[in-house]
Amino acid sequence: MAVLTMRDALNLALKEELARDSSVFLMGEEVAEYQGAYKVTRGLLEEFGPKRVIDTPITELGFAGLGVGAAMAGLRPIVEFMTFNFSILATDQIINSAAKMLYMSGGQFKIPIVFRGPSGSAYQVSSQHSQALESWYAYFPGLKVVMPSTPADAKGLLKSAIRDDDPVIFMEQERMYGMKGEVPEDEELTIPLGVAEVKREGKDATIVARSLMVPTALKAAEELEKQGILCEVIDPRTIRPLDIDTIVESVKKTNRLVVAEESHAFCGVAAEISAEINERAFDYLDAPVKRVSGVDVPMPYAKNLEQLAIPDVERIIAAVREVSYS
Amino acid sequence: MSSQPTEQRNRSNSSAAGVLDPPEKRDSSPSQSKELTEDRETLVKIFRQMLLIRRFEEKCAESYSLGKIGGFCHLYIGQEAVGVGSISALREDDYVLTSYREHGQAIAKGITPDAIMAELYGKATGCSRGKGGSMHLFDKDVNFLGGHAIVGGQIPLATGVAFASKYKETDQVTLCFFGEAAVNQGAFHESLNMAQLWKLPCIYICENNMYGMGTSLARAMSFSDVAQKACAYEIASEFVDGMDVLAMRHATERAVKRAREESLPTLLEARTYRYMGHSMSDPGKYRTRAEIEKYQERDPIKMFANKLKEQNVITDADIAGLEKEIKEEVEHAARFADASPLPDPSELYTNVYANPLN
Q: Exposure winner among A194, B80, B237, B321, fewest CB in 10 A?
């Protein structure tokens, strides 16, 4: 096991997959000569050359569509968005082309493409640069949506995403690039998409968290243990397809569910999980499912306001205590 | 023919043999064909294909009014020379991507009328297994990469297909069709910029039929010389008489040579006209009967028939024979579509993912 940052784990996954398959190429703004806006693509230009590591103009709709077209013709593009906020310009090609091509061609054209980049809140970058867009992309059949929470997961899941034959939205968290963790060194080790992981076992309440909310939920669970509440923390890792079975099994055991997320509550992933639990495990619930979501406002700039907008350890603890009636 | 766009322009303000509307002034006059250089077999094949498309589309209109075709249905009548002429300049393994007005181009690229009509009827035997419909015809076997129904959406896709050919070092060329209304979309400009920046073998064919649905070119485009917009990206371009099938073929041949040998893109602007509404549900109140009739005087099929007759390539009897054959071919397609089964209900859930995971 090597200890790597999330950034370096992602870099290693890209490097290994570029080396493994010559049909894989990487494109995006500043990915090559600049070495990546967040240095996730550091060294790749030098190792693989400008044919396979390509700086694009700032033209998100154009290069996203170009990637989908290249995938139709047999390549396996990795398209980096400098942040997923900029993917909003490319949604026509992601949703209307990538997500639907296989279906509307009657199964003739698969689209093995990865759209990846940082997502969610960062450090005081304000409203247009701090959005968690997973519920948008998870809405569309045809797309897969992945959100890792550890360096090991990031590496294994990104490798699976690149090898997958469907379009995958791979959302990294801007605040987590420097986070360190143990990463297995086996180049063939991948983590399957669509499989949740129980990050901490517990019997009293279930917390479902993804991305940045996983370490936050684990801290909350530590505090709650001191108060005598043993929490199970589940990271779905893949938002679509969602491993709801693992969550249902946990709820059957704990009878209480809190879902923590950075994104807005309205029409969000936590709302979906809550609805699924309502349909599949209603009789097992001892309390209503509680959502802890990003506040329903555009992200403010001021540091104190920004902190108030994102769920923190205290809000998760309060939610767990609420569903535990303690 | 030079590859430099500025050298390609004939400076003239003529309305070039009736292609332009009288008040319209252009820096360039459209390319038109001169003598016939093709062999008889090629010429007859081109003529037959245009006629087949015309009759196929007429049958579609009939089937639509009978309720056998659903949804939106955009017919190609009047524009046959653009698709047939340009696709005739391709090699079989070259790619075509286009918009939702694509029945004609699909036939020209080699999808059978049976498979297209069955798709329009929403049948399992359709070229997209009944899941795409009129706007989403696909056939991997003939490298027809779709009908795309968001205006301009196919332009970045085609650019990516051309990128893949260059990446894989094949010498395949990609042809991308779109209407002039798509030129106002960002996708057009983003794509042309990347195509020239990265020297991609993509040929962009703007079918300028002068209406984006019901909005005329004059009401939608501040500078309406589409071919000249290529100058902004230093891309070679040509303004072509889109009612002249051989002019389309020859202009595309020049572009194909540039793409295949030099890996460079080209923008062709084909001036054409659609006789029918934007779709079957369009009553067409935004233009006059007289305007439509004026363009029908330069009907691409009639003009080509006259040319072939003048040059003793075919006779009226030959044409009558072709009409008979084609009528049977189109009726066969309709009968095939009628008799074909609907997709199995289980097909609802297939092809959402190549690798469904659960």
A: B321
